[in-house]
Every structure is written in C-alpha cells, then in structure tokens.
Amino acid sequence: MSISVPATFVTGLVEAEGEAQRPWLDALPALAERYLRRWRLTLDDGAPMHGMGALVLPVRTASGDAAVLKVTWPHVEAEHEGLALRLWQGRNVVRVLDADDANFVLLLERLDHTRVLDDAPLDEAVHVCAEFLRTLAIPAPAEIRPLAAVAKRWVTELPEQSKGIVPDHVVAEAVAACERFGPLARPLLTNEDLHYENVLGRDGTWVMIDPKPIAGDPEFGVLPLLWNRFGEDDVMARYATIVREAGLDAERARGWALARAVDNWIYPELTPACRAVGLALAG
C-alpha cells in the first residue's frame, strides 16, 4: 500500500505555509498507510486528489463500499471539521464514516468529484449555497472556535495589516463592525469557507465538503461566495441575492462582509473582489 504524495500538493503547501510543513509532509505517506490498516481500507483506482491543505485518497472499505481517506494538514480552521460534519449528519454535507479528529484524518463517503457546483450556472450555484447558509446554521458546541474571539483580534489586526493598502474609511467601518457584532455573535455552526468548488454531486443533489467551522453568525460565510467567480456578474447584486435567499440579517451581513473584505484585501488573487465589495459596503 505505497502512498505517493503529489508533488503539486507538497509545493503548494510549502509555498503557502513555509518550510516548517516539511516534517508533516515527509510523514504523510506513513500516516495515511496507518489508517488504511486501522480501518481495513484498500486503495482504489484513481489518482490521489488534493486541495491546498489535504490529501484525499480513493479507497474501498472492508465491505467494498467506495470512500475517500482524507488526511488534512493540521491547522486551526480544520480542527473541528469532523465534529461539524457529524453534527450536520449528512444533510447537504458529506457523510463521515470514521474519524480520528486528533490527527485530522477522516474517512468520508465518496462523492462525484466530476460534478462540481463551480461548473453550474451562477444563478443555480448562488441559490444552492444560500440555502446551505440558511439550513446549516444549527447550535454550535462549545469546542468550536468562537467568532467573537476572531472579531476581538481583528479590532487591532485589521488596521495594522491594512495600513497603506486599504482606504482608511473602509478599515474604520470594518473595525466598527467587529466591535459591534463580535460580542453579539450568535453561537451557530457556520462554515467560513463555503464556496462553489467545495460543493460536489451526490445522486442528483449537491453536497458540501471541506468546511471550516466557526461558532458565530451565518452572515460571516457570505464573502467567499462573492470572491469566488468574481467578474461573472454584478457582485453587489449577487450579495443582495444571497442575503435575501439565505434569510440573513442585512446589517450583520454588511458588517461581516466588510470585515472579511479588509482581512483578505492583502491577497492579490482576492484584492479585486475585496476592493469592490469593501468600497461598495463602506459607502
């Protein structure tokens, strides 16, 4: 059961997170093989898949069912992925077959990775994700990292990291939103990384994968739905559609979208969308 880690995964993670990730990458084949043995899995046909932070191996269970073994690079945003998925119980999300949360290893049902919401018409994709924002907002357990703590940190971080990059009035509005809505954030399970590439097909339906759970307002999940597929439409019209169809609070949605726009403005690939949204919402 020899595991070959794609060079593109290694390069991408090191470029994004630095050379400090090399030891984990070096140990990754042995870690994956350990769980193949523990859960009595066999590698199936098909090449290993990956995003930026996880290796995904097509496998078969001992009973012959198709599944995937997902081994994630340990980081705080993914710490409670397995817990969140189990709480959602497979309703519009990928099902968990087994898990070792401490080592960021999940055994998941295998979805149709050739059917991606990112390829669907934008109107359909927006509607599906707005529905996810609405229906997946359930009470979050105490273990999930709180949005209130993120907002408190951003009050000082956003002005420091944005100096000379983001207009001062936009930063001021974002900080004010953190100060206003952070202490009032509701303890609801929210995916802060919901976007169209992380929704795959299952028997004619759409299913969310790879959540980054946070305990807070579902309005915090809006901005990735705007910077993904940016340029295909009037982004502020899309923003209004998401807020309306997801049944979101307009003021919270505005505040959190502003805060996240400022936080992500510094990344070149996100700058155009964050600038457009930030300037429009700040007025």
TrEMBL record:
Question: Which Pfam families did the record assign?
Answer: APH_6_hur (PF04655)
InterPro entries (alphabetical): Kinase-like_dom_sf, NH2Glyco/OHUrea_AB-resist_kin
- Specify whether Cell wall biogenesis/degradation is a keyword of the entry: no
Keywords from the UniProt entry: Kinase, Transferase
Give the superkingdom in one word: Bacteria
Its GO biological process annotations read: secondary metabolic process
Report if keyword Transferase is assigned.
yes
Q: What are the protein's GO molecular function terms?
A: kinase activity; phosphotransferase activity, alcohol group as acceptor
Q: What is this protein called?
A: Streptomycin 6-kinase
Origin species, per record, is Labedaea rhizosphaerae
